[in-house]
Write a structure and sequence with these properties.
Elements (H helix, E strand, L loop, with lengths): L6 E7 L4 H12 L2 E7 L13 E4 L12 H8 L5 E4 L1 H9 L4 E14 L1 E2 L15 E10 L8 E6 L5 E6 L4 E4 L11 H11 L1
Parallel strand pairs: 1-2, 1-3, 3-4, 4-10
Antiparallel strand pairs: 5-7, 6-8, 8-9, 9-10
Helix pairs in contact: 2-3
Length: about 200
């Protein structure tokens, strides 16, 4: 039987300790190799040879995150991207959405994931209403979300929790799949890796 070649991923570290939880999930998947590069050390024009790009959470706003937005602009046509929290927000901004600050930041908050697109590959085997963990002060402003970004899940307050580009293999999760509060988070990461 022929051995399956591991999928080589780029994990972008947006200067956040949560990146190590994501790395652990990728390692536990067992079918990947990866490089970790900080967002301010990226050379977006020379990023090639990766099966997928995983954008970690991080502090601040996308415009303050090194070369994160430029990376998305350079790679989204040819490389699958999954953005988590700040990474999700950066995807939204690159494609024309605006962010809005929450009246009450959601740090260490748990809510229910309400899946609006049941065929979304990230949510295969994930029960509607599954708990998710939030660590963010900003969300995508629903009214500014462009037609090309499909909302695939919301929370119990109707805030956008997941997006998918209609033409490119680009997805984002506002919540943290790597958080212990997100019970099906590993399943979501595994689903994404399987799709690559």
């Amino acid at each position: 039987m022929e051995a399956i070649e591991p999928k080589h991923l780029l994990i972008v570290d947006n200067h956040d300790s949560f990146v190590y939880n994501l790395v652990q999930m990728v390692e536990e998947n067992g079918h990947c190799t990866f490089d970790i590069v900080r967002n301010d050390c990226l050379v977006p024009e020379s990023i090639t040879g990766y099966k997928g790009i995983l954008l970690s959470p991080g502090p601040g706003l996308p415009g303050e995150a090194g070369k994160l937005c430029r990376l998305i602009e350079e790679t989204h046509r040819h490389t699958p991207i999954l953005g988590i929290c700040l990474g999700h927000q950066a995807i939204a901004e690159v494609f024309g959405a605006r962010l809005t600050r929450l009246d009450q930041p959601l740090h260490g908050h748990r809510s229910a994931l309400l899946i609006t697109e049941p065929d979304e590959l990230l949510f295969r085997g994930v029960e509607d209403g599954s708990p998710i963990g939030h660590y963010h002060s900003w969300v995508i402003e629903r009214e500014s979300c462009p037609e090309e970004l499909l909302t695939t899940a919301v929370d119990d307050k109707g805030l956008i929790m997941a997006i998918r580009h209609r033409c490119y293999p680009v997805r984002g999760l506002q919540f943290h799949p790597e958080s212990i509060m997100t019970t099906a988070g590993k399943n979501m990461i595994d689903n994404w890796i399987l799709s690559l």
